[in-house]
């Protein structure tokens, strides 16, 4: 039996996303998401958006980038975070991206909404580290739940925060995600 790919995307070297059909005859299409002269690492995907960290050799630090994927290909990547210091280990759910930020000398958790283009600071401590974030967006409730590992008490504990402000999209109106992401600026 011959299998057919449901997704016709170009393939090349770099970060890869594998799309697989859940039918009996599986088709796997491998294609390039990001491949620059820099190092890309730690990709995460939610719906049709991929985020990852990329080393910026010009400044000697890691940044966060993303791209939207569709059946017709991968749209140009866009910058999510390029603060001084390292921005690493991005995670995404829906429109919210969170990551570890090392710009103040310790690790903190920051976030960014791909539609509102609003950055939000989840933690900002200079005496302890917050690492390994995870995010869940509850669009029905209009909030995001963000959790992370935290050493503020001298040992590693799990902390969390609920974000229910403008960072979380609560509309049920249809919207053009590609156009909204394109307005984020800093495309390349």
Describe this structure in words.
The protein has one domain (38-182): Neuraminidase (6 Propeller). It contains one helix and 14 strands. The protein has one helix spanning 177-182; strands at 15-20, 28-34, 40-46, 49-56, 61-70, 73-74, 78-81, 87-93, 96-101, 108-113, 119-121, 130-138, 143-150, 157-163. The strands form four sheets. Strands 3, 4, 5, 6 and 7 form a five-stranded antiparallel beta sheet that branches. A four-stranded antiparallel beta sheet has the order 8-9-10-11, with no helix packed on it. A three-stranded antiparallel beta sheet has the order 12-13-14, with no helix packed on it. A hairpin with a 2-residue loop joins strand 5 and strand 6 (73-74).
Q: What is the CATH class? A: Mainly Beta
Order of helices and strands: EEEEEEEEEEEEEEH
What is the typical, i.e. mean, pLDDT? 80
Structural class: mainly beta
Per the CATH scheme, the topology name is: Neuraminidase
How many strands?
Answer: 14
Radius of gyration equals: 18 Å
Catalogue the unreliable spans: 1-13, 170-188
* Main beta-sheet annotation: 5 strands, antiparallel
What is this structure, in a nutshell?
3% of the residues lie in helices and 48% in strands. The chain is mainly beta.
Summarize the topology:
Layout: E1 15-20, E2 28-34, E3 40-46, E4 49-56, E5 61-70, E6 73-74, E7 78-81, E8 87-93, E9 96-101, E10 108-113, E11 119-121, E12 130-138, E13 143-150, E14 157-163, H1 177-182
Antiparallel strand pairs: 1-2, 3-4, 4-5, 5-6, 5-7, 8-9, 9-10, 10-11, 12-13, 13-14
């Amino acid at each position: 039996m011959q299998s057919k790919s449901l997704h016709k995307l170009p393939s090349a070297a770099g970060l890869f996303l594998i799309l697989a059909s859940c039918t009996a005859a599986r088709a796997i299409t491998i294609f390039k998401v990001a491949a620059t002269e820099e190092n890309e690492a730690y990709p995460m995907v939610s719906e049709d958006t991929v985020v990852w960290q990329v080393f910026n050799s010009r400044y000697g630090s890691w940044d966060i980038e993303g791209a939207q994927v569709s059946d017709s290909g991968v749209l140009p990547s866009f910058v999510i975070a390029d603060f001084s210091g390292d921005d690493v280990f991005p995670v995404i759910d829906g429109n919210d991206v969170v990551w570890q930020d090392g710009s103040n000398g310790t690790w903190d958790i920051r976030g960014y909404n791909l539609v509102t283009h609003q950055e939000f600071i989840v933690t900002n401590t200079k005496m302890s580290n917050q690492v390994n974030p995870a995010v869940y967006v509850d669009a029905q409730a209009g909030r995001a739940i963000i959790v992370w590992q935290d050493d503020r008490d001298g040992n590693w504990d799990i902390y969390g925060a609920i974000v229910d402000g403008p960072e979380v999209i609560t509309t049920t109106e249809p919207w053009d995600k590609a156009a909204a992401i394109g307005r984020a600026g800093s495309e390349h």
